[in-house]
User: Fold this.
Amino acid sequence: MAISTKKTTAKPTNGSPKLKFNTGWEYAPAPESKGHIQLKDRYDLFIGGKFVKPSSGNYFDTINPATEEKIAEIAEANTADVDKAVKSARNAYEKWWKKMAPKERAKYIFRISRLIQERARELSVIESMDGGKAIRESRDIDIPLAANHFFYYAGWADKLEYAFPNRVPQSLGVAGQIIPWNFPLLMAAWKIAPALATGNTVVLKPAETTPLTALKLAEIIQESGLPEGVVNIITGFGNTGADLVYHNDVDKIAFTGSTEVGKIIQRAVAGTNKKVTLELGGKAANIIFDDAPLDQAVEGVINGIFFNQGHVCCAGSRLFVQESVYNKVLRKLKDRIETLIVGDPLDKNTDVGAINSKSQLETINKYIGIGKSEGAEMFQSSCPIPKKGFFCRPTLFTNVSQSHRIAQEEIFGPVLAIQTFRTDEEVIEKANNTPYGLSAGVWTDKGSKIFNLTTKMRAGVVWANTYNKFDPTSPFGGYKESGFGREGGVHGLGAYLKY
Ligand code: NAI
Ligand code: MG
Assistant:
């Protein structure tokens, strides 16, 4: 740390004294080292336990969104490659995986979990480089949780009859899994771990902007000795995903991503035997009552919307504050936003990293423009942001009405829309007035209020006096346009079984 000679500017906001977080100390850069990571210049497709060249011969670049520099070339799988991967998964299913004793299956899954733990440091750095998220988050949340998911589901592999008493749970066959770019390794774990524990084989397609940790996972899978073809990882764009969805030898599709693509997938599988789970967008309400511990609530709101740059399907992107505490909450929020450090994802002090891609930054900026032109009032952190790379200042909007697009549509960035309310009934109605229903947050001292809200809100997950808490034992999923099916916990097993 270095002592700053800069004076703290304690300008009053709205006449009330400004909280001084900055006491004259400044953070010196604390970059995580990259020296220990191993990356190839070019990655092929992981099919049948080997890295194989794509039959298209095509490769695309994955870049670091914080520097705009190319990191590696990634193979693009075409229809023939997808077919090869599905055949390999089918073959492994019939030949080995279906017949293997469940407790033997568990050993491989435990081994994958331990290898992720062993390589946690390398995986964290690669995750932050490829996708832009702050190293603090990949190191403390994404990678440990990914290992946890494998660990948790490994434990279920030989206990399925206890999860489904008086039934005979049976695997489905080949699972096609398509994942997004906001939690790349974690989403791979959410998908692969329960599929393997229930005796299915897998073809996984990572997102085009963040394929690297899934490809490192392919190396880990090789090292674990998992029978060839039980997990296949194929990279590419939306077309590759579509080829997997349409393939007629796939028994189950698990998708996490946009509602738009979720709808396309549902149409594609209509009339087939494919089982489907869809985890799509969200526009969560985070609700602060006047009896809430306000400082704690403000921390929860900050975490709810700025965690992972707001690229979170369950982000608390709509804040509802009870009128009597509105001014106080707003002042505290603005002060707290000013303290967030935006910048180099590999710096351990960074709170908000890079936006995942240029096109996502354009989407976010488009919505900021829409918010202003609809008449909402914008407040942005005054922090410096790097000139190169894709960055966005933490932003909030006040004077927002229910009909504003920034209050209705998923922005998937660090942008918070704030509204007020007076009564419980009013806020429940406002919170439910959305096409989505993935998550919500409630901040109050009163248990009865929490129970009232959790039963009346149409949201798959409701957090009380906390936000964005994830655990492999707890089911996650949505209502309405947020999708259907549950991942995590015992519920997550059911999505991969006939029972
Ligand atoms: P997307 O839904 O296009 O991408 C997610 C995954 O689906 C990627 O692997 C992509 O290659 C694949 N995909 C694309 N088109 C496909 C198709 N026709 N068939 C099968 N797979 C296909 O999401 P995108 O365009 O990256 O982001 C757009 C918006 O979607 C974001 O701004 C955000 O609002 C939302 N989103 C929500 C996520 C969530 O966690 N619920 C994750 C990512 C995006
Ligand atoms: Mg990338």
About this structure: Confidence is low (pLDDT under 50) at residues 1-10. The chain has 16 helices and 22 strands.
